[in-house]
Each structure stands twice: as structure tokens, then as C-alpha cells.
Amino acid sequence: MSMVETIYMPSENDFRGKTKKFNGVQNGGKISNGCHKKTKQVDEETEKAWEKDFCETFEETPMLAAISTYIGYLILVAVGHVREFLKSIGIGVVKCVAEPKIPGFVPLYQTWESFYSWYVYRRIQDCFCRPVSGVPGAKMVVIDRESNDHRWSFQYTGGHSTVLNFGSYNYLGFSQNSGPCAEEVEQTIKNYGVSVCGSRQELGYLDLHKQMDRLVADYLGVEDAYTVPMGFATNSMNIPSLVGKGCLILSDELNHASLILGCRLSGAKIKTFKHNCMKDLEKNLREAIVDKQPRTHRPWKKILIVVEGVYSMEGSIVKLPEVLRLKKKYKAYLYLDEAHSIGAIGPHGKGVVDYFGLNPRDVDIMMGTFTKSFGAVGGYIGGSQALVNHLRLYSHSAIYSSSMAPGVAQQIVSSMNIMLGRDGTREGEKRIQQLKWNTRYFRRRLQEMGFILYGNKDSPVVPLLMFMPSKIAKFSRESLNRGMGVVVVGFPATPMTKCRARFCLSASHTKEMLDEALQITSDIGDLLAIKYSKAEPPSYSENDVPLVEDS
Amino acid sequence: MYDMFQALLQAPSYHLFFEALLIIWIFKLLFFSKAYAPESVLTEKEKEELIAEWQPEPLAPEIPDDHPVLMAMENNIITGKPGKYVTINGKSCVNMATLNFLGMAGNPSVEAEAIKTLKKYGVGSCGPRGFYGTMDVHLELEDKIAKFMNCEEAILYAFGFATIASAIPAYSKRGDVIFADEGVCFAIQKGLVASRSKIKWFKHNDMEDLERLLIEQAKEDKKNPKKAKVTRRFLVVEGLYINYGDLCPLPKLVELKWKYKVRLFLEESLSFGILGSNGKGVTEHYNISPDDIDLIAASLENAIGSTGGFCCGKKYIVDHQRLSGLGYCFSASLPPMLATAAIESLRLIDEKPGMLVELRENCEKIHSKLSDINGTVIVGEPISPVKHIRLAEPSTDRDFDVQTLQKIADLSRDNKVAVTLARYLEEEEHKLPLPSIRISVNNQLSDEEIDTVFTTLSEAFQKIITH
């Protein structure tokens, strides 16, 4: 299936090696779950102060869980093959909408493409694409559906369930249908209409777009910014205008599908390096400059390092100070995709650059999306004036797609004004602190309960490992019944044996909601026996995060 | 011979062992060793020198702040609603530039629906379709589109460009063959590149050229029937071409589809909601059943006046994109208020098909009037809502022509008729069209306004060309 080749590129080492390296010291069999202690290789001169506070955990998969997961997949595939065989000889009902055989036409799909869809994905199909009615805020209204034919099709029961929302990307809680943002959006729709129907260069450039671009640049601390109406398209349409044939792209192995598509469309040579592994990145950089292009041996025109701020499936944060050091040493360019980190981390909510206290002008291309933290849609690219002018002229979205809908642009402007404190309140600060507190509290409590969590202590994306595909299905269904909506992911978005549930925390979650969620998770955790962790309790806590009181 | 055999039997075992090893080694050298390439091993110092010497190209070339296109954008910022009249720099001009063919972008009932939805759903949907980003309004819009187009199922995308650019690579992979018209729009070109298939271009709207390519492919298939059995073949065309304003000859295409067994993908961004007596597009215009088309893709950003796009067709075809369409699976879904705006637009088109008749009449009026402008050639069908005005006597320098047309457009704007040049990425288009001013017609123009447009443009052309 095309999904396999584009989403997940398996690494040669799994996380086993990483655990030993980054998870601190092994104390007589117990793995420390606290912050990263300095290892022997750290250079005395280059004191990496940021490493003291950088705390990421990727605990090893327990042997029993791994074995039972493989057995589980074997059974699934075997049953699927048996059903397929029975179907071919006419027994058994397989209610798929199969491709009709039209004489002379080559079939559109291979049988193995449909195999995954019919015999694996279909069994847990009710965990995905759940229809929602109403605003996806801290709580959401899920439309109940049931299936009478083993999930080949669904019928609506007519009921709705209001559940806690840990599935939507709403880090700063701007997904609201009332309040100052919504009022300003309503006024904007009355003044500017619903859409523009023209591209930026062909008379679709509103003064509102100019204001939005300026505000994004101010927010990020860069010279100028350029916005695109779709986050995915920001990557796929703009990377090709920055690099082309004769350039090299060094891309993290767990990059998002939009980055991979953008890199492919550019025509440059792509090399992946191990996830967040700076040694591998440096090795690739050195090899690239010394060995030059294969076959022709001309030097590379440009080298572009593509990383993400927060990786949404792992919860890990990129080691930005190291990447910047390497970038400067080897004269490469850095493309930082902050889809999940802008607004969500950093003391001022300005993303991973803010988190490490670095200078935003050091990052050549700061890209991000408005979908997750600002309750809107679309993406931006910030950088130097030359870069942004180049994009304004040569980006695909400036010419061939209509510009952003005015209502959406206003939502971005309103939410960013709140975050910058320009509305005169401390609302922005309050949201950032609340999110940080929620993150620390939630992660600490879950780790204390004994769940295996991946990722950085400050990442609002919390992957909870369950390993077996059947367990994630049960977790999803049980939690929905008990009043909590979470996202579960399995193969091919994650490695085969590392299926997980993913919690997305929000500044709009109150402590009571978090406690309720923790209780539900703990109960289901006992039911499914997924409290695998053997690590010590975490050493960080939420108590050093000051909250802003309501004035 | 016999002696040799005796000698073998009598030889000591270590000797035989040695001989056996020697034979194995010779064998290996003969058949399994790689050619010896002298490795040039660089010292660390040399490597450091190379690294210090290497200089990359600048990330983005320096662009002067007074680049003509940048200036054109800065000088033409719009304030207020871009409806029939658009306010540029404080001046209210007749809007002949944005693709707002049915006036949905300023329609009060569409706006009211959007505001109602905003108050219930907020702005963003905060997630992709698989993870709580599926709202009931999306399902309703997909349903309505499927019913409107008489297809089994429709799938909704959040962005018009991403629709066809994700749909093509979902079906066509490396090793497949796609026959594409040379004049297709950029989004389709990007979809073709992303698919990594073999692309065979045929001359714009030239059915004989297409047939020639199909016959060639059939001959190749005969030579290699095994490969032919697994090579899928697709034909990608647009209903109404945005670069040329002309229709594709759909009946002939359907005939070729069945004759040569290729699957037909039709891109209807400019014809959906415009052609046909009920706005169902080019299939209704030619009276062809949508069952004959494998996939119809269209953007909702033109006639419907919203954002996003959709694909519709048979269930077994469209459903595949729910797991394989990159722009569908990995992107946040369409904001709910834009989805309900689209639902309302569809309802209005259904209710008042008279709008389409008005649009067609205006298109024909403008076409006949603009044909009378001296020094120009008008490109496009009379019923096409998008027309290109090109210079009748272009110079050899494209940049000079673009500048000339820009001056004409600026003069026209100063006289309260807003037009735009058709913009392209000149280095990247497969077949770069000649420079032109692009006129887009809408159904709300009155006869006086059409006369004003004609007079203003005509004077502008005369003034600049005779200069």
C-alpha cells in the first residue's frame, strides 16, 4: 500500500540502542526514568547546558509484549488468508465493495492492497473516523454509531455522547465557538465574505493577509513570513521552490508525509538519518561534502536539513542546539517544521526555538501550521526577507491556489494577538502555563501508574505504548464508553510492534478533567494489563510551573 | 590417466586438503571477486579542508523589492469583499479578475450559513479525518455532492490544489502509464510528478495525437503481454481548461477510453457548477453519464465560492482515497463553516438554475464584445467563463509582452475595471501558455457594466499598444 512506503521508514536500529544511550544509567537492572545524565562522551569545553534539562524516554519493549504482538499479527494474517481463500471458492460473506472485473481493463488495485484494508484495518475501523458534531474543544460530542455486520458498514443510532477530548489538536484551547476570536471572525465574514476565489498574485491579496503575514513574522521573531491556506501544502508546495536537482536533503527518518512528499517533488537527492541522532546527521553531512554527488562528483549545490520541532507519533523534541551547531559548521540550511511545537512549547509559546532559548534568525526556514495551536487551518513559512520574497514570487500556492479564507485569517490574527498579549490581557500567558502544567502533571501521573510513555517531558503529545493491535482497539472502545475520546495508532503509522494510544493535551483541560482521564486510563490499563513500565518514577513534576491566576 | 588416479589415492591428506583449498580459491577469484578499484583514502586533514572550502549556493536568490510582480501585488491590495465590485486602494472597480462566477463569494445567505456554523463548531476542525476531524457537516457535504453529480460516493479535501494532486498518485504508481493533455493545469502536473508514472503528453485537445499515442501503446503491449497485464493506463484531462478557456471533446474521449481500455480522470474545477443545465459540469453539457468517467475531481474554490475540493465516482474507486490519498489522510479537514457554505451554494444552484443561464449569456456577450478590441486575440470558447486576451502581434521577448499587458491591466484598474494577468511559474510549467490578461465573467454583470468593461479595456489596449 502506498501508505507503507510514504509514512514509515523503518530504521536499522530500533529504540533499544537509544534507550541505553539517552535513558540514563542502568542501576542494577532498573532503568532510570529521569533526566538524561551526562555520558562519557560529552566534551568538557562545549558544556551543553540544554542537555541538563532535556529529558526523553523511550523505554525498551518488554519481551513478552513483543512476542505476543507478533503472534497476534500472525493470527490476523492467517485468518485473513483463510477468509480470502473461502471467498474465492464461494463460501463466506465478505461484504467489501470489490472492484468489478471489466474486460480489457487492468485492475486498479492489487489483491494485497485490499487485504490490509479488509482483514486488518476493517476490524478496528470503528476506532477511526469517528464523526463529531459541534466544536472540538475540551469536550466533544461524538455521534454514536454501531455496526451489525462486523464493521463493514455503520449505522447511526441517533444518539450522541459528550466525551473528554484527548484526540483533537487543540494545544492552546483556541478551538472555541464563542469568545473574542469567534466574534472577530463573525465580523470579518460580514466585511470580507466567506472566500476570496483568487490567488495571491491574481488579485486575491487582501489587506487582512498582509496583516496576518506581518503578525506571524512578529510572533516568530523573523524578518517576514508567508502564509499558505493548507498546512500539508505548505510543505509540499514550498520545498520544491527552495531546492531542486543537484541539492541534497537530509531528512529525519520519522518526518511527516507532507515533508516527504515535498522533498520528493523537489527532485533533490534525499538521505535519511536516524531519528534525532546527531552523530548520524554529522556523519551524513561530512560524507556529503567530502564525497560530493554520486557519479558526477560535482559538489552539492545546497544541503538542506529537514527536521520537525515535536514529532507527533513519538512525542520527542528535536535537539535543536546540536542541529544548529552542525548546520553552522557545515554550512547547511535548516528547515524546521513546527507543526506540533508552535504555540505548544516554549516559555512564550513560540515553539522549539523559544524552548531552547535560541535566536530565531539562526533557523533559515521556520515552517509551522495554524491547525494545532491556533484553532484555524493553514501554514506559514518565516525567514529572511529574501526567502519570503522568493516564496511570494515562486511558491506554487501564490499562483495556483486561492488565498486563505478571510474568516480563517481573522482567527489566526485574533489568536496570535491574544498570545502576544496585544489584547491587553494575560490570557496568552495563562494558556501557555496551563498547557505546560497539564503536560507535566499528566505525564508524571501516567508514569507513576506504570505506563510506558514515549517522548520528552515537555511534549504535549503523549504516546502511551500498548504494543498489541488488539489492545489499542479495546482501549479505544472502552475509553469511549467511559467518556474519553483518544486517538489510537498502529501499523503502518508506527512500527509494527509499537501500537500506541496518543493523548493530545490542551490548555482548556482542567485538573478535574485530567484526573477523570487518568482514572479511566488506569482502570482500562488494569483491565488490559498494559502497565508494562519497569522504570523508576519520574524526577520532574508540575510544581515548578507557575500558573497565571484569573484576574 | 591411470597414473594420475593412483597418485591421487597415494598422496598425503594434507596435500589433498591444500589442493582443494587452492581450487576453491581460484574458483572464487574467477567468478566471485569484485573488480579491484584503488580506493583514494583521504586523510582527516584533507577532509577538513574540503569541508572548509565548500560553499553552498544562497538559499534564495536576492530579489529586488521593486520586482514587477511584487510591486503588482503590493499595489493591488483589496479591502472589503471581493464580490461583483472590488475595492482596490480605495477605488471600487468592476471585478473581472477573481473566479467568482456565480457571485457566491458575496452571497448573504451563504455568509449567514457560515456564521451559524461558526457559532456551533468554531473555526478549525483540529484534526485529520481519521482522528476526530470528521464532522457531520463534512459527511453531509459529501453526500450532497454525490447526489448532485449522480455518483455513488464523494470524498472531500481541504484544499483545491491538493485534490487532484493527491488523487492521481493514489491510483497510478511507478510503472503505470498516464496520457495527459499538454494544456493541463499546474495542480495536475504536480499530481503526475508525484505519481512517478510514465507520462505521455498529447497536443492540447488533439484527439488524433492522442489516438496515435494510444495505438503506439497498444503495439508495445502486444510485444510484451505480461507487462501489459500489470500496467495500468490512465487518461487525464480537464473539463474546461483554465489556461485556454476551451472544452475537452468528452464524447471522443469516452469513445477512446472504451476502445483502448484506459481509465478516464476528469478535472472539473472550472466547469463544476457552471456547465450543463443544472451545473453538473461537462458531463451534463455533453449529455454523457458520469458512470463513463472513472473519477471526477473538482475544486470548490471557484463557482461554489468556498474552500476545498472533492472527488466523486464509483464507490470502489473513491473509497480507495480514504486510506491512500495523502492530502486526505495527513491533513486537517476542511473548516466546518466553509463546508456549510459549500452546502448552501449547492442548494442555491439547485434551486435557481437560472443563474447558470445568466452566466452563459454574459459569457457570450462579453466574448463577442471583446473580440472587437483591436490588436488582440481572444482565446476561449464563447460559453467559457474564463477568457484570455492575448496580443495579436506578440514580440519575441516574453518579458516585454508581460510588461505591456501589465501596463494595460494597471491602466484598466485606474479606470475602475479590475483585471489581472494570468500568472505562471515560467520555469516549471510543462507547456507555458503565451502571456495574456485573464478575464473572468460572473452572472451578476449588467449590460451597462459589460459595456463599461469593453470600453475601458479597448481604450487601455489602444493607448498602450499604439504608444
Automatic annotation (TrEMBL), chain A:
Pfam families: Aminotran_1_2 (PF00155)
Pathway(s) of this molecule: Sphingolipid metabolism; Lipid metabolism; sphingolipid metabolism
SUPFAM superfamilies assigned to the protein according to its UniProt record, in alphabetical order: PLP-dependent transferases
Catalytic function, reaction form: L-serine + hexadecanoyl-CoA + H(+) = 3-oxosphinganine + CO2 + CoA
Keyword Lipid metabolism assigned: yes
Keyword Endoplasmic reticulum: yes
Enzyme class: transferase
Keywords: Acyltransferase, Endoplasmic reticulum, Lipid metabolism, Membrane, Pyridoxal phosphate, Sphingolipid metabolism, Transferase, Transmembrane, Transmembrane helix
Domain Aminotransferase class I/classII large: 162-519
Gene Ontology biological process terms in this record: ceramide biosynthetic process; sphingosine biosynthetic process
Family per record: Belongs to the class-II pyridoxal-phosphate-dependent aminotransferase family.
Protein name: serine C-palmitoyltransferase
Annotated source species: Magallana gigas (Pacific oyster)
Phylogenetic classification of the source organism: Eukaryota, Metazoa, Spiralia, Lophotrochozoa, Mollusca
From TrEMBL, chain B:
Pathway(s) this gene product operates in, as recorded in its UniProt entry: Lipid metabolism; sphingolipid metabolism; Sphingolipid metabolism
Documented EC number(s): 2.3.1.50
One Pfam family this sequence matches: Aminotran_1_2
Start and end residues of each Aminotransferase class I/classII large domain: 93-454
Molecular functions per Gene Ontology: pyridoxal phosphate binding; serine C-palmitoyltransferase activity
Biological-process GO terms, alphabetical: ceramide biosynthetic process; sphingosine biosynthetic process
Cofactor: pyridoxal 5'-phosphate
Transmembrane regions listed in the UniProt entry: 12-31, 154-172
Gene Ontology, cellular component aspect: endoplasmic reticulum; membrane
Protein keywords: Acyltransferase, Lipid metabolism, Membrane, Pyridoxal phosphate, Sphingolipid metabolism, Transferase, Transmembrane, Transmembrane helix
Family the UniProt entry places it in: Belongs to the class-II pyridoxal-phosphate-dependent aminotransferase family.
PANTHER family: CLASS II AMINOTRANSFERASE/8-AMINO-7-OXONONANOATE SYNTHASE, SERINE PALMITOYLTRANSFERASE 1
Name of the molecule in the record: Serine palmitoyltransferase 1
Origin species: Magallana gigas
